[in-house]
């Protein structure tokens, strides 16, 4: 495996060796599926650069999650044609899963997530998907293509009918009708804030294991402002961490992606928030396995998260 010269959280704190790492981070700088703002292809490198500023110690978990081993792969050469992009990413994620890695993909625009789900579904037959996003992404086609980022949940639902969408606050009338007709499990941002839906009940109804896709436009602008299709009224930082902590405690998450950050040269805040988000989620995953205050310095490497 060719590793990224600039490791996530690096310089190497002694945990980036691929063979012994529990986690494989795959940067996938594709933005062929965007419909508005550009910059998603610059996101993985911006997030990896920003991750170097993050403390390795998590003050809430009272631990250093990086000890489980986090290995960052070199960004692959990405085909321009969307269909070929999907095949390429499917093969890469499949290989990482064959090596028993907990897979984290850094996008890239949201259209990449269907390839991640395809690969995950091959390994985990009863896979569900949780999407945290401002947008429903349930259109069958957009701008004349089924592989637009605006269609990713429609593509994912062709692979698994078990999905839960959280934080949604932007959809077309057709998408709303589809949710109604098919009784899709959706917690809109309005319902999330007003308690109109029971999050714990929805999580309980969803079969394990789960792939989690996080579109950073789910966040409020004060947390992450550099994203291709921004929507006001998003998640605050602590609110998102509480939500994610609950998801990681209640569900067996077997991989996740973080998509739609848009590289903006003057914005240092957004990539830092995205990098810290990834590290926090990895900490939540480890905490589910060995407890929040376990004997973390002796955390074994290898496939402990699966
Ligand atoms: Mn979105």
CATH topology: Arginase, Chain A
Sheet-strand content, in percent, reads: 5-15%
* CATH top level class name: Alpha Beta
Contiguous helical run count: 9
CATH-defined superfamily: Ureohydrolase domain
How many domains? The number is 1
SSE series: EHEHEHEHEHEHHEHEH
Determine the fraction of residues in helical runs and give it as a percent range.
25-40%
Shape: globular
- Which class of secondary structure composition applies to the elements? alpha/beta
What characterizes the major β-sheet? 8 strands, parallel
* Major sheet strand order: 2-1-3-8-7-4-5-6
Query: If you compute it from the alpha carbons, what radius of gyration comes out, rounded to the nearest whole angstrom?
Result: 18 Å
Measure the end-to-end span: 20 Å
Mean pLDDT: 95
Low-confidence stretches: none
Number of strands: 8
């Amino acid at each position: 495996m060719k590793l990224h010269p600039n490791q996530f959280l690096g310089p190497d704190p002694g945990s980036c060796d691929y063979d012994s790492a529990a986690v494989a981070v795959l940067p996938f700088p594709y933005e062929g599926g965007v419909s508005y703002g550009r910059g998603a292809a610059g996101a993985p490198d911006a997030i990896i650069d920003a991750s170097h500023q993050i403390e390795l110690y998590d003050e809430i978990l009272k631990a250093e999650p990086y000890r489980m081993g986090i290995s960052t792969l070199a960004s692959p050469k990405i085909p321009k044609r969307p269909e070929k992009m999907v095949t390429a990413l499917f093969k890469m994620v499949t290989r990482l899963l064959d090596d028993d890695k907990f897979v984290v993909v850094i996008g890239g625009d949201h259209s990449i997530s269907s390839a991640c789900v395809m690969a995950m579904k091959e390994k985990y037959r009863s896979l569900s998907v949780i999407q945290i996003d401002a947008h429903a992404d349930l259109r069958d086609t957009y701008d004349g293509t089924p592989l637009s980022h605006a269609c990713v949940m429609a593509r994912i639902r062709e692979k698994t009918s078990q999905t839960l969408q959280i934080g949604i606050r932007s959809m077309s009338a057709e998408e709303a009708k589809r949710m109604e007709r098919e009784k899709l499990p959706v917690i809109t941002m309005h319902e999330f804030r007003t308690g109109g839906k029971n999050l714990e009940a929805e999580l309980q109804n969803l079969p394990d294991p789960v792939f989690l896709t996080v579109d950073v436009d789910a966040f409020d602008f004060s947390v992450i402002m550099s994203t291709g299709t921004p929507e006001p009224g998003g998640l605050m930082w602590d609110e998102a961490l509480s939500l994610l902590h609950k998801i990681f405690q209640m569900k067996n998450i077997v991989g996740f992606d973080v998509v739609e950050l848009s590289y903006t040269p003057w914005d240092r805040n957004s990539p830092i928030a995205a990098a810290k988000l990834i590290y926090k989620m990895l900490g939540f995953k480890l905490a589910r396995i060995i407890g929040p205050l376990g004997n973390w310095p002796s955390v074994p490497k290898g496939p402990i998260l699966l």
